[in-house]
Specification:
The complex is a heterodimer of chains A (754) and B (195). Chain A is α/β, with parallel strands linked by helices. Classes of the chains: A alpha/beta (754), B mainly alpha (195). Chain B: It is found in: Nucleus.
Chain lengths: 754, 195
C-alpha cells in the first residue's frame, strides 16, 4: 500500500491586530464652487462678426459651456436648478448649478435636467434655467433680441426626436438663436483626438456607448449602448454600504455627492477580478488595501465626576439611608411601646377575668376582648410577650438572650383515652407543633452539613492544587473543554431542531408520535399487560418530555439544570487565577478569534473593533468594494443589469456584426476610450488584456484614452465649430421654421434622422 | 464664502443668497411673451412609448400606400408603363412613378439609405433608435459572487438564494432577517417584487 505523508500545517497563531490607520479619509463637503464669474469680453469681441459659436456640452454629470474660441469650457456645473419661495424672506429664489449647495433648503429643492440614470432630457424648466445661466455668465445682453450667436449642442447617441424637437423649440423660439447644430459628444471627442478609423468606447456618467467609426464615418447601425456609468456606480456603492453597515448610511445622512467622491477617490479597476478579490481580505497587507472612511460622530458623554463630587454623592446617599433607618427605628419603637401597652392591658384583663366573681362576668369580659376563653387570652399574651422580647432584643438590646428552650410537649406522652375532647385537640396541636419544630431543626442541620461538605470539597481541591499543580490545571482545562463542547452541542441541537428535515427533528417527531399513539409497543402487545404499558413507573421515563421539548425558547438557560454558561464562567475564573498560561486571550477563544474572522476583516479591517466606541461605529471600511463597483461594466450581472459586459459587446460588434468588414482590423488598432468612467485607474490595461483574450491572435489591439476624457467632448465640439464645413451643418432659424421641428442636418459627428 | 454648513451666520448667508439668486436678475435674451407648452416634461418611458406608437402608425400607412408595390421584373422584357394589368386603369395609374421614385431614392447612397432596413426593396423603419441600440443580454455564463463579501462564491443558500463564500459567511447569512436578505438580493437585482 502506498504510503503518503501529508505535511501538517502548523496551526498559525493568532494574527497580530494592526495599529489604527494613520490616514483616515473623511466625507467630502458639498461641492460648492463659489459663484462662477461672468465674463463679457468674448461676447463684446465677437460682436462684429456675430459668428463665434457657443458650445454647450449638455452632459448628465455636468454642463460644460463656453465660446468656441476658448481652450477649455469656461463654465462647468452640474445640471441642477432650485426654484422655490423662501418662507422667511417671502420671495422667490432661483439657484443654478453648484450654487445650490450653499444652502440646505436649496439643495433639498434641487431638480435635475435628467432623470436619475438617464441621459435624455426630462425636465425642461430646469433646462431653461440652465441655459439662462449660461447666457448670463457668457455675457449675452440680449440687445439684438435674444441670443445672437450660433449654438452647438451635444446630445446622446440616438437621441429621441421628441427631445430634439423641444430643445430646438426652446433655442429658436425662446432664445432666438440664429443657428443650431447638434452632435454626439463621443464622436466629437474622437475627432478632437485625431481619430479616423476605430472603435469609440465612451463610458460616461449614465451610460456607455460603443461606436465603430470608419474613415470618419460612424457606423451607427452597429452602435450599442450599455446602461452603466458613474451614476449607477454611485447607486451600487450606496446599496452595498447600506447592507454592510446597517443603519449607518441613513442615520448619518450620507449624501449622493459624498458617495460619488468615495467612488472617485477609492475605486479602481482590477486587472484580474477573481484573483484580486480572493486575496483582498487576506491578513497580510490588509491595512494597505483597506481604506477607512470616518463619518462625523458624536462622542458619548461620559461625565467624569471629580473625586469630591463622587464623595459628596456618596455622603448624600448615606445620609438619606441613615435618615430612613432612623425613621424606621422610631416607628418600630412606637409600635413596640404600643404593643407593650396592649400587653399590659390584656394582662390586666386576664387578672380581672381570673378574679371575676361569676363565670358570666368573666365571659362578658372575654367577649368584650373577643377571646374564646381564658386559654386563648393567655396564649395571646404569651405571644405578644415573645414578640416584644424579640424586638427589644433586636432594637434596644437590653434584655438578655432568651435561652433556646426546647418547647415541651407534655401532652404527647399521655395516651388518648386519658384526655378529654379539649385535651385531644390540644394534643393534636402539640404534635403538629413538634413536627414543625423537628422539621425546621432537620433543615437547619442539613444546611450545615451541606456547607460542611462544600468546605470539605474546597479544601480537598486546594490541597490537590497545592500538591500537584500541573495535573490540577490539566484537569480544569479538560473540564472547561467538555463544558465548551457541551455548549456547542446544545446549540447545534437547537439549530437542528429548527430545521424540519434534520435527524434530531425527525427523532423528536417519532417520540411524539410514539407517546401519542394508542399502542406504543407496536401491534404486538405485551402478554398480560394489555392496557398498562408501565410508563411512568420508572423515573427515567419522564425524561422523554425533555427530549420532546424543542427547546426553542432561548431564555431557557436559567431553567436548565445544568447551567453550562455559569459553569464555564466559574471554571474560567479559576483558571484565570491560578493558571499562568490562561489569559484573557484564551477566554476569548470561546468567543472566536476575530483576527481569523473573514467577516471581521471585511467589515472592520485589520483593526480591533470596540462596540461601545462611537467613533469606531461611524466608520466605513472600503476593501472589496473598491474593485467590485467598477467591475460591473465588465460583468453587469454583478449588479443585476441584464446586459452583456463591455468586452462581450466589443466582441459581438467586431467578431459577428463586422466580421467581414474590410476595415475591421484597422478599427481594432484604434480602440479609443473616453468619458468619465475611463478615469478609473486601470481601465485601459484591463480592457487591453481582456480584448486580447477574445479577439483573434493576428488582430493587434491598441487601446488609447482621450487626453482629458471629461473635457474632450467639449473641446472637440469647439474645434468642429471652427471648421468651414461645420457651418454648412448648422440649421438656421428660418430653415427650422420652414422645415419643421424635427428637421436635422446630418453630419459625420452627429446623429441620424429617424 | 463658505457654504452654510460650516461657520456662517445669518448676515453672510443672506448676502450670499442675494448674490447667487437669479430670480431677480434680468434676462433680456428671453422672449418676453414665451409660454412653454403644457406638459412637456416627459420621462424616458413615455417618450419611448410614444415614439413606438408613432412608428407603428407609419408602418400601417405605408402598407396601404403605393410605396409598397413590388419591384418590376428585370428579365429583359419590356416593362409596361404601368404595373396595373388593366389597360383602362393603367393610364391613370401612378404606381410606376411612385416605384421609380422609391428606387431612385434607394440608390442614392447616403447615410440614411445605408441604415434603413430594406424589406422587399423598400424603406420600412430606421434602425437607429434609442431602444434599438440598447445592448443585448449576455450570452456568457454568469459568474457568481458572494452577496455578503463580494468574493467568488461557490455555494448558494437554499433558503434565501444568497450566494456565499465559506462556512463563516454562511453563519452570517443564516442569521439575516428577511429585510436584510431582500436588500442583499436587491443589490443583485434578484429580490422579489410584489406588484
Amino acid at each position: 500500500m502506498p504510503h503518503f505523508t501529508i505535511p501538517i500545517l502548523a496551526d498559525s497563531g493568532r494574527n497580530t491586530p494592526k495599529e489604527p490607520p494613520t490616514d483616515t479619509f473623511h466625507l467630502s463637503d458639498p461641492p460648492y464652487q463659489g459663484q462662477l464669474p461672468t465674463d463679457l469680453s468674448t461676447y463684446r469681441r465677437s460682436a462684429s462678426t456675430g459668428d463665434t459659436a457657443i458650445i454647450i456640452d449638455n452632459g448628465s454629470f455636468s454642463i460644460r459651456a463656453g465660446w468656441q474660441t476658448e481652450a477649455t469650457p469656461r463654465l462647468q456645473f452640474p445640471p441642477l436648478m432650485a426654484r422655490y419661495t423662501d418662507r422667511k424672506l417671502n420671495r422667490k429664489l432661483m439657484f443654478i448649478g453648484s450654487e445650490i449647495y450653499f444652502d440646505g433648503t436649496a439643495r433639498g429643492q434641487a431638480k435635475s435636467i435628467y432623470e436619475p440614470g438617464s441621459n435624455i432630457v426630462n425636465n425642461w424648466d430646469v433646462q431653461e434655467g440652465v441655459l439662462d445661466y449660461v447666457w448670463l455668465k457668457l455675457g449675452i445682453d440680449g440687445q439684438q433680441g435674444g441670443v445672437d450667436r450660433p449654438v452647438v449642442m451635444t446630445e446622446p447617441l440616438a437621441n429621441t426626436t421628441y427631445t430634439r424637437k423641444v430643445m430646438s423649440e426652446i433655442l429658436y423660439e425662446l432664445y432666438n438663436v440664429p443657428a443650431v447644430a447638434y452632435g454626439v459628444d463621443s464622436l466629437f471627442s474622437y475627432n478632437y483626438n485625431g481619430g479616423t478609423t476605430g472603435l469609440v468606447i465612451s463610458s460616461a456618467h449614465t451610460s456607455t456607448h460603443l461606436i465603430p467609426v470608419v474613415d470618419k464615418q460612424p457606423l451607427l447601425s452597429h452602435a450599442t449602448r450599455l446602461d452603466w456609468g458613474r451614476a449607477q456606480c454611485v447607486e451600487f456603492l450606496t446599496r452595498l454600504l447600506k447592507v454592510k453597515y446597517p443603519g449607518l448610511i441613513t442615520s448619518s445622512k450620507v449624501t449622493d455627492t459624498q458617495i460619488e467622491d468615495l467612488v472617485r477617490n477609492h475605486c479602481y479597476v482590477s486587472q484580474d477580478y477573481r484573483e484580486e478579490t480572493l486575496r483582498m481580505l487576506e491578513w497580510a497587507g490588509l491595512e494597505d488595501r483597506d481604506q477607512l472612511v470616518q463619518l462625523p460622530f458624536q462622542e458619548k458623554e461620559i461625565i467624569q465626576k471629580t473625586e469630591e463630587e463622587l464623595k459628596m454623592a456618596e455622603e448624600r446617599r448615606r445620609e438619606g439611608g441613615r435618615r430612613l433607618q432612623e425613621q424606621a427605628a422610631k416607628m418600630r419603637l412606637d409600635k413596640l411601646i404600643k404593643k407593650e401597652q396592649e400587653t399590659e392591658y390584656l394582662k390586666d384583663v386576664l387578672i380581672r377575668v381570673q378574679e371575676a366573681p361569676t363565670k358570666k362576668a368573666a365571659r362578658e369580659l372575654l367577649d368584650e376582648e373577643e377571646f374564646k376563653d381564658e386559654a386563648a387570652l393567655d396564649r395571646k399574651i404569651k405571644e405578644m410577650e415573645k414578640t416584644i422580647r424579640k424586638q427589644r432584643n433586636k432594637d434596644v438590646g437590653d434584655l438578655e438572650e432568651e435561652s433556646k428552650e426546647v418547647p415541651a410537649y407534655p401532652l404527647l406522652s399521655t395516651p388518648d383515652d386519658e384526655l378529654d375532647e379539649d385535651g385531644i385537640r390540644a394534643k393534636k396541636a402539640q404534635r403538629l407543633l413538634k413536627a414543625n419544630h423537628d422539621a425546621r431543626a432537620r433543615a437547619k442541620a442539613e444546611k450545615e452539613a451541606e456547607k460542611e461538605r462544600q468546605a470539605e470539597v474546597q479544601r480537598q481541591d486546594d490541597a490537590y492544587r497545592e500538591r500537584d499543580f500541573e495535573s490540577w490545571v490539566n484537569d480544569r482545562r479538560a473540564e472547561r473543554q467538555t463544558v465548551v463542547q457541551r455548549i456547542r452541542d446544545r446549540d447545534r441541537l437547537k439549530a437542528d431542531l429548527g430545521n424540519r428535515k434534520s435527524q434530531a427533528s425527525q427523532m423528536r417527531m417519532k417520540h411524539i408520535a410514539n407517546l401519542a399513539s394508542d399502542n406504543p409497543n407496536g401491534k404486538k402487545r405485551r402478554r398480560g399487560n394489555a392496557d398498562d404499558d408501565g410508563f411512568g413507573a420508572d423515573d427515567a421515563d419522564w425524561g422523554i418530555y425533555r427530549e420532546i421539548q424543542a427547546g426553542r425558547n432561548d431564555d431557557d438557560e436559567e431553567d436548565e439544570e445544568e447551567d453550562l454558561g455559569a459553569q464555564l464562567k466559574g471554571l474560567e475564573t479559576l483558571l484565570l487565577r491560578f493558571d499562568p498560561q490562561f489569559t484573557e486571550q484564551s477566554t476569548q477563544e470561546a468567543q472566536r478569534d476575530w483576527t481569523k474572522s473573514l467577516y471581521h476583516a471585511f467589515a472592520r479591517g485589520p483593526y480591533a473593533f470596540d462596540q461601545e466606541s462611537a467613533k469606531e461605529s461611524a466608520q466605513f471600511h472600503l476593501n472589496v468594494e473598491r474593485i467590485r463597483v467598477p467591475e460591473v461594466i465588465f460583468q453587469p450581472s454583478i449588479a443585476g443589469v441584464d446586459q452583456a459586459g463591455l468586452v462581450e459587446l466589443v466582441e459581438s460588434i467586431m467578431m459577428e456584426r463586422l466580421s467581414g468588414h474590410a476595415q475591421r482590423d484597422a478599427m481594432l488598432k484604434d480602440v479609443f476610450v473616453t468619458g468619465g468612467y475611463a478615469m478609473f485607474q486601470g481601465f485601459e490595461e484591463r480592457l487591453v488584456t481582456e480584448l486580447r483574450a477574445v479577439l483573434p491572435l493576428e488582430a493587434a489591439v491598441k487601446v488609447r484614452r482621450a487626453r482629458i476624457p471629461v473635457l474632450d467632448a467639449w473641446r472637440g465640439a469647439a474645434g468642429w465649430a471652427g471648421t468651414e464645413e461645420s457651418r454648412g451643418k448648422f440649421v438656421s432659424r428660418g430653415e427650422w421654421m420652414e422645415k419643421g421641428g424635427e428637421y436635422l442636418r446630418e453630419h459625420n459627428l452627429g446623429n441620424v434622422f429617424t | 464664502m463658505a457654504p452654510i454648513t460650516t461657520a456662517s451666520n445669518e448676515e453672510t448667508h443672506g448676502a450670499l443668497l442675494d448674490a447667487l439668486d437669479l430670480q431677480k436678475v434680468p434676462k433680456p435674451f428671453r422672449k418676453p411673451d414665451w409660454k412653454p407648452p403644457q406638459r412637456r416634461n416627459k420621462n424616458l418611458k413615455q417618450i419611448l412609448s410614444e415614439a413606438q406608437r408613432a412608428q407603428q402608425s407609419i408602418i400601417t400607412t405605408q402598407q396601404n400606400s403605393g410605396a409598397s408595390t413590388p419591384l418590376p421584373p428585370t428579365d429583359g422584357t419590356i416593362t409596361p408603363a404601368s404595373l396595373n394589368p388593366n389597360p383602362a386603369q393603367a393610364n391613370n395609374d401612378l404606381s410606376r412613378v411612385v416605384l421609380e421614385k422609391n428606387i431612385a431614392a434607394q440608390q442614392t447612397s447616403g447615410v440614411v439609405a445605408s441604415l434603413t432596413a430594406n424589406v422587399g426593396g423598400l424603406a420600412v423603419t430606421p434602425s437607429v433608435t434609442y431602444t434599438s441600440i440598447a445592448a443585448a443580454p449576455s450570452l456568457k455564463p454568469k459568474k457568481k459572487y458572494c452577496d455578503i463579501t463580494g468574493l467568488p462564491a461557490k455555494y448558494t443558500d437554499p433558503k434565501s438564494g444568497l450566494f456565499y463564500f465559506n462556512a463563516e459567511v454562511y453563519k452570517v447569512v443564516k442569521n439575516l432577517s428577511t429585510t436584510q436578505v431582500q436588500e442583499y438580493l436587491a443589490a443583485r437585482g434578484a429580490n422579489t417584487v410584489l406588484k
